[in-house]
Amino acid sequence: MGLVQRVLETSGIPSVTLSMIPDLTRVVGVPRLAGISYPMGQPLGSPHDVDGQRAVLRATLELLTTATGPDAYIELPFKWPDSPARVRNASKDLPPPPIVDLLKKKPWLTIKLYSGHIPHVEENTQLEQSP
Amino acid sequence: MTIDSYRFLDFASRQIMKAWAARETRKEIPFTPLAKPLRECTVALVSTAGVARNDDLPFDQEGERRNPWWGDPSFRMIPLGTTEKDVKLYHMHIDTRFGESDLDVVLPMRRLTELACEGVIRRPAPTHYSVMGYILDPTELVEKTAPAIAAQMHHESVDAAALFPA
Question: Residues 45-64, chain A: which have Cβ within 8 Å of B?
């Protein structure tokens, strides 16, 4: 997403990203970043928490005004009501993403995910067929 | 940085995201100052939750199942007024049930409209956008998708954009 933001900004549209993993978004090199300690999948807040969502959106947009130069970073003060264990537990019943299934079967490929050396489709097709 | 970016992640995701963060090299960062006060701005939103309208082409989940190293790099336009009743979320790495029960959790168009009523911004753009998260090879996303989103935003005289990784 940071990469998309860079393209928008370069095209002349001022932009801000709200990130739950600001550590990672920031190193991509984005003009304006608001970090928030919320779980994945719920950047603005819990469903139907209208006031909470609006407060997060408003605080994010305010960085458009207050930022004076690139790499502007603020941390939003909002606190998630549940513990990480409860958050993970709530989504336990979901099927794992395809890459997690693949790496369970072929753990030696994990290094490729770490290193960013993504196999090409042809290469991957062969890997899929190997025992 | 005082926020623990990895607080809610499981151990494996935490290790991988830390490795990705460590791999990034310093780049020049673009910056376009806001040309007018926020209260006079038309604002557009972008979500990575893989939101697509039910009357639009779905994101390609089957392609990612066939090749888990691949993510659909296309984008969908989400007209203002679209609600959770009109969409599905296709991102395969998050719990999409939250955004599907309340779209503002990932793409806060109603909250943006409320902020316009309060005078914080001038108006929401007529169109908002979604892409998929988890795109390991961002070539097409950067070279085709993002410029197409930028072009549509310019076409609708958007003054500022807010992006929401999901």
Answer: 45-48, 50, 53-54, 57-58, 60-62, 64
Q: What is the pLDDT of residues A9-50, one digit of tens each?
A: 999 999 999 999 999 999 999 999 999 999 999 999 999 999
pTM of the model: 0.92
Enumerate residues 71 to 100 of chain B having a beta carbon within 8 A of any beta carbon in chain A. Answer: 92-96, 98-99
Show me where the domains of chain A are located.
2-89, 98-129
Residue B42 C-alpha from the chain's centroid: 17
- The CA–CA distances, whole Å, from A115 to A30, A119, B18, B20 equal 22, 11, 11, 7
User: Angle, nearest 10°, between helix axes B109-117 and A50-66?
Assistant: 70
Q: Which of B15, B30, B23 is nearest to B142 (CA)?
A: B30
Q: Which tokens sit at A52? A: 């909470």
B149, B155, B160, B166: CA torsion to nearest 10: -30
Residue B41: strand, helix, or coil: coil
User: Which of B1, B4, B5 to mutate: most A Cβ within 10 Å?
Assistant: B5
